[in-house]
Each structure stands twice: as C-alpha cells, then as structure tokens.
Amino acid sequence: MTAASAAQQGGVVDDRAPIVTVEGGGTFVQGIGDASILQAALRGGLGLPYECSSGGCGSCRIQVLSGETESLWPDAPGLSPRDRRKGLQLACQTRACGDVTIKVGLDAACAPKVMPRVTRLELAGVRGLTRDIREFRFRGEKAAEFIPGQYAILRTAEGLRRCYSMSNLPNAEGYWDFQIKRVPGGKVSNALFDMAPGAEIGLDGPYGLAHLVADSARPVVCVAGGSGLAPMVSIARAVGADPARKLDFFYGGRTAADVCGEAHLAGLPGFGDTLRYHPVISSLDDPLSAGWTGLSGFVHEVVGRHFGEALREAEIYFAGPPPMAEALQRLLMIDLKVPFNQIHYDRFF
User: Fold this and answer.
1) Which residues contact 223 (CB under 8 A, 6 or more apart)?
2) pLDDT in tens, 11-56
C-alpha cells in the first residue's frame, strides 16, 4: 500500500511515515495522526482484533518481528507476565518508530464499518444527569458518523486521552453527545467537568464492535450501569424508532440518586409498551434510597430473574463497571448458554 492510498483511507501521512507490514496480511501506513499501530491499522481498513483501545483488555496483542517500536504505556495491564516473557505487545499501546513487521491474526469482523478519523470539536453545552454524571454535547464541522453503541477517544488540550461512548445518533449537524461520570482523581473526567462552553477537544473515532446489529429482528435487552448509560441510550434510540420491535432497558445504580436514563427514552415511540424502562438499585438501606419502591438488587440478577431462558432469544447489549459486565458475562454465557453472537459489549478498564 502506498502512502497516498493510505491517506485516501483516512490516515494522515507524509514521506517519512512508517509502513507496518502484517505477516501474511498486507501493509498499512502509520500516519501523523495515528497514536498507535491499532489506530493506523483500523484507519487502513484492516481487521486487527481489539476491544477497549486503552490497554486493559489484551485483545490487540501483537508480536513485533522486525523494526523499532515505542510503548505508550509500558505497564498496561492488558499484558500478562507470560505475554511479556513471550515478547508480545499491545497494538493500542505501541507506535512504530520506523518500518516494522508484526504478527497478528486479522479478523474481517473487526474491520471498521465507519472509518475512524481525527477531528476537533467545540463544547456546545453541558447538563447534569445525576450527582456525578453529566451529558456533554460537542459539535464538529463535519457530520457525526458512527454506529449506535460505538465509542470515540477524546483528547484534552494537555494530551490526556480517554474512551467514551456516544449517547446520541449519527447526524449531519456534527453533534457528538457523551454521558461522562466524574471519577475521583480521574484526570480526564475532571478536566472535562472543568471545561466551559466554547472550549475545544480532540476526537478520534469511531471505534468499537459492540454496536447495534441492524439486520436483527430479535427483541433487544439493554443493560447499563454508571456512565455505561451512553451507548445503551444510543442503541435504544435507534431501536426505539421502530415501535414494532420490543426493547427492555435496565439501568442499575447504587442508590435512587444514581438512577437516570428514563428521560432519554420517554419520548421514543412505544415507550411504556414495546419499550420498557427498568431502574434498579442495589443499596436499599442508603439514605439516598429512602422511599424507593422499585426493583432492587444487583442489576444482572434482576435481568436474570425477569427473563430467565428467554434471554436466549434476544440481542443483549450491556455497558458499565467491570464487576457488572463480568457478572453479566457469567450469567449469559455460562448459566443461560446464550449464543455468543447475541451478546454485545466492549471491555473498558
């Protein structure tokens, strides 16, 4: 592949841009705007396996056969001690310093359906959702192109990077909405919470494979916790446009004060009928839950009790804290034997 052809596919390159060769799988160019080999591969249209894009899951392990690379995060938890002994690296945390050859099993299912790109956004507005979650609306000069359920990498003026999912639908006006939880000590979330309208931020995306399956007619179950609300709201908005399709939306919070999401769904066709919202809290004895009469318990347990084996007939999407995601995986894959291709989630850490 030439540098010119790579530029046509979305990478920003020059004559000095490193060429990355996948043993037995073609080549791509690492452009100036590509922070990692993973991003460059996806912008080149190759299906390099990945999930979180942030060094946590280990799905994008590669072996560098020749050439020099640099690690963007040497201590990334996605590599086990055994991986390190074998000399494996994470494509999402590795950048080529010159031409390199790597070994990795490509997967056509991981090839991007919407080509990721780097752009600048301006903060258009902010609104509070709960005591620690806000919805941020950014606007760019070009259309916002993504599939409901996908995420993007936001980069602050200081160069801090973090993955966040979009909560809105793709649109020609260039709006990108994110529902972000303020994390104590979290550098990126606190920087975003301190931003004022008009401030600029960088966006790289879209990414993510746990997006809406457009050609499925199965009923949909969305399960969210914390700021995992965003991709589930995006999927619900897309599914909810068809009032004939059933959707059950579960949101789990620790207390009644942490519950949100209903306002985003209430205006959709079929709300209360084919589209049902189920808020769940896990701490009934907390003062912030006083007067709660709705569902209680861990959200995965409530979902299991509500549906049982009927989950085998649904498309299931979920996003939230790792303990919630891991519990749902066990419930769906091990306990209920739900077909794997009907379970959709991205692992974030």
Assistant:
1) 232, 250, 252, 299, 300, 303, 316, 317, 318, 319, 320, 324, 328
2) 444 457 899 999 998 899 998 766 799 999 999 999 999 988 888 8
Say if residue 190 is in the same domain as residue 254. no
Q: Model-level pTM? A: 0.89
pLDDT digits (tens, 9 = 90+) for 217-240: 999 999 999 889 999 999 999 998
The encoded tokens of residue 295 equal: 């569902």
Do 145 and 161 belong to one domain? Answer: yes
Classify residue 172 as exposed, middle or buried by CB count within 10 Å of its CB (0-12, 13-18, 19+): exposed
Sequence-ordered list of residues with C-beta below 8 angstroms from that of 82, at least 6 positions apart, any chain: none
Do residues 91 and 207 touch, judged by C-beta distance below 8 A?
no
Token look-up 């303990």 returns 323
Are 205 and 144 in contact by the 8 Å Cβ rule? The answer is no
Same domain? 49 vs 130? no
Burial status of residue 129 (CB atoms within 10 A of its CB: 0-12, 13-18, 19 or more): buried
